[in-house]
Amino acid sequence: MSTLDRDVALEHLAHTQTAAEHARDASTGLLELVRTQEQAPSVERILFTLAGAGKTYHEDGPRVEEPTRSVGIINLSSIPVYFGLDGGSPNQAAGAFPIGPGATIVLPITAVQIELGVDPNQLAGAPNQQALVFLIRFPSVQRLAAGPAQGGGAGAAVSSSAYNDVSGPIGIASAQVLPANAQRLGSSWENDSANLIYLGLGQAAVIGKGIRLAAAGGSWDGRLGGATWRGTVNAIAAAAGSNLLAGEGM
To answer: What is the DSSP string of 181-195?
Structure first.
């Protein structure tokens, strides 16, 4: 083989290897896209309050290595909620993006850290001095969407049918917190006490079994294997006088 023929063969081989690498990278990227699209979004219930250990600012964390590809916010309150990204102050003075009362929005933006906030003066005039918001993190890119939250509308208080709040005291005997509901879109559960709380799904709650909500903030997003649980939910506490924050969206 002449030197020219050898050089041509080596150049052809290099091109072939490069094409193979590009094809492998494309295949890996496609598989990653399929994987993220199959993942269910995470849903977090955020309650802004003035009473007790309330808060008017929420920072969703800790910062994660895998950024959110799209963000959804459901404002089930009668006041605006302000939205900031990666250190942006979530308030009107900072020019943060507002989500109106009774509004839902999905933003196809990449985010690692998400901040939500409300105006304390507006919160003081809200029903029960509370503002309920759901934050949704999507692992894949979603289409831009905006509209009224179910049962509510922009500029108006949200109908009580949009969210059924069943928060209340939990005792040392199993008791039903939510009945089965085929129309349930999601639910949220948070232990607002210094005692352990256990949930029983479709059966009586038993200490040491089922879903464990750790003291002072232990939570469950209402899903099993990525699917919303629509059956009955019972609860029991390790000590009397425990408090559970819970509810379902319909």
So the answer is: -TT--EEEEEE-SSS
